[in-house]
Amino acid sequence: MSVNPTTRPQLVFLLLACATALGLAGTDLVLPAVPTLPRELGGGIASAQLVIAAFVAGTAVGLLLFGAIGTRFGRCVPVCIALGTYAALSLFAGFSKDIQFLIGLRFLEGTAASAPAVFAPPVLRALFSEAGATRALGILGSVESVVPALAPVLGAQLIAVWGWRSPFFTIAGLTAGVAAAIALNGHSFPQTPTRDARGSYGVLLRSPVFLRYSLSQASVLGGLLLFVFGAPTAIVTVMHGTISDFVWMQIAGISCFVLAATATGHLVRAFGAERLIWIGTLLAAGGAVVITLYAALGGSTPGALIALFIPMNLGLGLRGPPGFFRAILAGSGDDERAASLTVLAVMAVAASSTAALAPFLGRGLLVLASACTLVECCGVVLLWLMPPLPDTPNPASKGDQQ
């Protein structure tokens, strides 16, 4: 792998960050339009929800698809084609006159929109040193955490002024612009030779080193998402709080995540990636345990969650970027498949745990926090039992005499 001397890393990072944000906006910017869709396009509430679900399902398919494509056709060209397709499908979606037609387009939209999530980490790995790539992934993760908070607000404003179609047209226009910018600056992307197709998802799934980083990443982030998805019900329905309590909890959590994630490049140099992964994982799990203890002792003040939620976010911010980067390294050159499987694992853990917990959410914070603790602690167990990358000793392993 070589880097073109004309490469401009900051420009490439900016373009990939914009592309990633627009992929996320496919869900969050459109979300405020969902309640109006039955009136505008027919169908019921269930059909309207499928507009979001279809996009998520398409994203899962796209992660696997682009993970395989990237090993054959390089990176820049597939990203441009995917973004161009995403823009065109969003435009067509904006002209939809039937809810079933829109659902079908949304599945294809999600498939195309997943490309930046697959290709961005391998490109950043090629552009920067380990500390630099970790820092870049931290900033990218910060962007990804802010988009779900801001995009629905922007989407609501667009709909209020121009109607339910405006989020789709906005995504189409912005994505087309980013696709054109990437195409015009393709020379700035690292030159990656086309590789053969001998790699496979099966090889990665049989690698304990890759699974160590990928599944522990999924446990830490998936556990946090489980808590976020269940918190509104626990706070409003059981703890008799308001949605404002949840919003402030999220603001505090996202702020601390951003602070930690953007500092990881410097922290990797100071402590080493492996040690930082351990610190972040233990902090996240410890934060979940503290919330569980608070609930078990009868704590029921919604405002207390604003402070109690912070350690989980700090832990994810500290371990997320180096953990993701090491999952890519553990792919042994099959970077796109490693990235796609890691992201897919996060989605699977968050979705499956949320679905399993749903019937029990009415029992309150203790059940939610206990489930979150279980998922978070799986990350600790995975780090303990599975081998790290050979060039980095495990600071918490039984054989460590330091």
CATH topology of the largest domain: Growth Hormone, Chain: A
CATH-defined superfamily of the largest domain: MFS general substrate transporter like domains
Estimated share of beta-strand residues: under 5%
State the CATH class of the largest domain: Mainly Alpha
**Would you identify the CATH architecture of the largest domain?**
Up-down Bundle
Radius of gyration, CA atoms, in whole angstroms: 21 Å
Residues in helices, as a percent range? over 70%
Quick one: biggest sheet?
none
* Uncertain stretches of 5 or more adjacent residues: 1-5, 393-402
Mean pLDDT equals 87
Distance separating the two termini: 36 Å
Number of helices: 17
The count of β-strands is: 0
Order of helices and strands: HHHHHHHHHHHHHHHHH
Overall structural domain count: 2
